[in-house]
Model the fold of this input.
Amino acid sequence: MENRDFSPRREMVKGNWTCAGCGASITELPFEPDGERPLYCRDCHRQRMANRPRRF
Done:
């Protein structure tokens, strides 16, 4: 059976950033940061999304 993954792979931006939540080093992001908003590592981002109120 062939792979039917039609979603394009996101290009990762390499750099040297620090997580605003835990201080961990971030070396790749799926976007170019704007320098104004805080950056979060994968674990902190997941935790923040889980704690967010759901929109209906």
